[in-house]
Design brief:
- 86% of the residues lie in helices and 0% in strands.
- It is mainly alpha-helical and 44 residues long.
- It has 4 helices and no strands.
- It comes from Mycobacterium tuberculosis CAS/NITR204.
- This is Short chain dehydrogenase.
Protein backbone atom coordinates (compact mmCIF):
# COMPACT_ATOMS: atom_id res chain seq x y z
CA UNK A 1 0.00 0.00 0.00
CA UNK A 2 2.77 2.44 0.89
CA UNK A 3 4.67 1.76 -2.33
CA UNK A 4 1.47 2.08 -4.31
CA UNK A 5 0.64 5.37 -2.60
CA UNK A 6 4.05 6.74 -3.48
CA UNK A 7 3.87 5.71 -7.12
CA UNK A 8 0.16 6.37 -7.80
CA UNK A 9 -1.14 8.59 -4.98
CA UNK A 10 -3.74 10.44 -7.03
CA UNK A 11 -5.52 7.26 -8.10
CA UNK A 12 -5.65 5.81 -4.59
CA UNK A 13 -6.59 8.84 -2.47
CA UNK A 14 -6.61 12.21 -4.23
CA UNK A 15 -7.32 14.21 -1.06
CA UNK A 16 -4.51 12.58 0.88
CA UNK A 17 -1.97 12.56 -1.95
CA UNK A 18 -0.74 16.13 -1.49
CA UNK A 19 -0.32 15.76 2.27
CA UNK A 20 1.41 12.39 1.96
CA UNK A 21 3.85 13.72 -0.62
CA UNK A 22 4.67 16.71 1.60
CA UNK A 23 5.19 14.53 4.66
CA UNK A 24 7.22 12.03 2.66
CA UNK A 25 9.81 14.70 1.92
CA UNK A 26 10.06 15.56 5.64
CA UNK A 27 9.94 12.11 7.22
CA UNK A 28 9.44 8.98 5.13
CA UNK A 29 9.23 6.77 8.23
CA UNK A 30 6.31 8.81 9.54
CA UNK A 31 4.47 8.31 6.27
CA UNK A 32 5.06 4.56 6.41
CA UNK A 33 3.74 4.40 9.98
CA UNK A 34 0.76 6.59 9.11
CA UNK A 35 -0.20 4.55 6.06
CA UNK A 36 0.17 1.25 7.91
CA UNK A 37 -1.94 2.50 10.80
CA UNK A 38 -4.59 3.80 8.42
CA UNK A 39 -4.64 0.51 6.51
CA UNK A 40 -5.11 -1.42 9.77
CA UNK A 41 -8.05 0.81 10.72
CA UNK A 42 -9.71 0.36 7.34
CA UNK A 43 -9.14 -3.42 7.30
CA UNK A 44 -9.46 -4.73 10.87
Amino acid sequence: MVTAARTRPVRIAPRVAVAVNALDSIGPRWVNALMQRRNEQLNP
